[in-house]
Design goal:
The protein has helices at 6-23, 96-109, 168-180, 201-209, 220-228, 253-277; strands at residues 30-34, 46-52, 70-76, 79-85, 113-122, 132-140, 185-192, 214-216, 232-242. The chain is an alpha/beta fold and 278 residues long. Bound molecules: hypoxanthine (HPA).
Length: 278
């Protein structure tokens, strides 16, 4: 698909934002992306309103069954938030620019901070399924980048510096909140690649050798987009299964979603605790 110009992107953003504002007069400061099996993380949010993705001009529509498709606006721990209930994956066939679009819409709505969550395979042998990992850094293993194409220098830099993409202050907050909540919080590097197949033993070995602790099919494009537009970022991974090259087991989608759902209440409390202190 041809790359969009920024003139086109701005036009599309204006139309999407006008549609949302028609129903919701609300300026969220924090955006939250809910990953696989994590849709009910929103339970603790005092809801103000929702907007279905299918009603927003130019918004991609989620094709994965385990992902709902709406923006949910509300208050969490006294902060105004917008949640993406359902995200867009490269393996679904979206372009990187399409995956970037909702992140840019949230910025236009007022977002200053992005909190990302995902489900991923653990490669650090100290991890166990059901662990939560604080994302300290990432590796972009996608064959693309949402910033490829023309750049709008007023929106973000042509060559964004990737210094402290995951905000250090927020990481400190997350560790303190985890301690208070008696939660074992792992930390590590997330590597994002296309999927949709999981990795072979040889690939897990390679990715581990590259310095990654968890591997998944999302997050990196959204984080690059958010960083480009100067958002502060906090990210969490739920380790749903282990990808240990020398100890491979079959892994089903049911296992992944089951573990994500079981871990969800812990992640919900952790995110709420972090939001409170932001
Ligand atoms: N690999 C990639 N993505 C994943 C995995 C995995 O092992 N588990 C959950 N999402």
């Amino acid at each position: 698909m041809a790359l969009l110009t920024w003139q086109e992107i701005h036009q599309m953003l204006d139309e999407a934002v006008a549609r949302i504002r028609k129903d919701i007069d609300f300026e969220p400061e924090i955006g939250i992306i809910l990953g696989t099996g994590l849709g009910s993380l929103v339970d603790g949010i005092e809801m103000v309103g929702t907007v279905g993705y299918e009603t927003i001009p130019h918004f991609p529509v989620s094709t994965v069954e385990s992902h709902a498709g709406r923006l949910l606006f509300g208050n969490l721990e006294g902060k105004k938030v917008v949640c993406m209930q359902g995200r867009f994956h490269y393996y679904e066939g979206y372009t990187m620019q399409q995956i970037a679009f909702p992140i840019r819409v949230m910025k236009k709505l007022g977002m200053k901070t992005l909190i990302v969550s995902n489900a991923a395979g653990g490669m650090n042998p100290n991890f166990k399924p059901g662990d939560i990992m604080l994302i300290k850094d990432h590796i972009n293993f996608f064959p693309g980048n949402p910033l490829i194409g023309p750049n709008d220098n007023d929106w973000g830099d042509r060559f964004p510096d990737m210094y402290e993409v995951y905000n250090k202050g927020y990481q400190q907050i997350a560790k303190e909140v985890a301690l208070e909540q008696n939660l074992r919080l792992q930390e590590g590097v997330y590597v994002g690649l296309t999927g949709p197949c999981l990795e072979t033993a040889a690939e897990y070995r390679m990715l581990r050798g590259f310095g990654a602790d968890a591997v998944g099919m999302s997050t990196v494009p959204e984080v690059i987009t958010a960083h480009h537009q100067h958002n502060k970022i906090l990210g969490f991974t739920i380790v749903t299964d282990m990808g240990l090259a020398d100890n491979m087991h079959p892994c089903s989608l049911e296992d992944v979603i089951g573990t994500a759902s079981k871990t969800e209440p812990k992640l919900r409390d952790l995110i709420a605790g972090c939001v409170k202190r932001m």
